[in-house]
Amino acid sequence: MSLNSKIIIVTGGAGLIGTEICRSIVSRGGNVSICDMNEKKGISLQNELGDSKALFIRTDISLKESLDSAINDTITRFGKCDGLVHCAYPRTADWGTKFEELSIDSITANLTNQLGGTILTAQRIIPHLELNGGSIVLLSSIQGLSAPKFNHYEGTSMSSPIEYSAIKAAVNSVARYLAKYLKNKNIRVNTVSPGGILANQPQNFLDQYRKDCINKGMLDPEDISGAVCFLLSDDSKYINGQNIVVDDGWSL
Questions:
Q1: N or C: which end of the chain has fewer CB within 10 A?
Q2: What does each C-alpha distance from 97 to 151, 162, 242 come to in angstroms?
Q3: Cβ neighbours of 23 (radius 10 Å)
Q4: DSSP-assigned letter for residue 199
Q5: The whole model's pTM is what?
């Protein structure tokens, strides 16, 4: 599929999944704004992709002024904006705290940063996409569809935070809401729900996880980018309000 001449903003663009999405967009002929808080990784990725194809913009998705500046900088640099991939994943320092020990402050902060940031980012980009149409892709998760398989975590220090399940289930609802809300605006809103992504998890977790999959088990970040690019492309121009699950059958 081609993304030739499309200009895409990627929040969390210097992160684990965002980096591969940016690479995939550029490899398909598109241009990207890498919006992230990590300047070192963001500038490195911009240099890798080339200044003519990529622009790093330090962006805080919890601040509308920062989002507005990132969008305006994108349009100034590339002349337009055709879409958004939202995969920013801000977390508090105590992210992953056991359910029994969660505080209301931690819950509030994470819901605000992740879910609130998703809604705010969509709010700021939509007026610009209304000019020529476009595509919004929100990164959700299999944990927004299904309860965690808690046996996978046995014998590890890992957990699946309840806030994560709540946030990702809500992201799916946000996408459906916006898809209907933007009727006749020529803006599509969809989600992609990845399975687990390899990131140095312990082997016993990987083995347990693999038992519930079909071919591979935990995925690499590049396994997600094709579905995202499809939803950004004109090949999916009548797909709206949908959720594409990329999990090697984990959720079956």
A1: C
A2: 18, 9, 31
A3: 18
A4: S
A5: 0.96
Beta strand ranges found along the chain (DSSP E): 7-11, 31-36, 54-58, 83-86, 134-139, 187-194, 243-246
DSSP strand pairing (134-139 vs 31-36): unpaired
First-residue to last-residue Cα distance in the chain: 28
Around Cβ 221, how many Cβ atoms within 10 Å? 19
The DSSP call for residue 219 is B
> Is 164 among the catalytic positions?
yes
Residues across the chain: 252
Cα dihedral: 106, 110, 113, 119 (round 10): -130
Note whether 137 and 83 are within 8 A (CB).
yes
Catalytic residue among 164, 177, 209, 238, which?
A: 164
CA distance 87 to 141: 11
Nearest to 129 by CA among 6, 227, 4, 13: 6
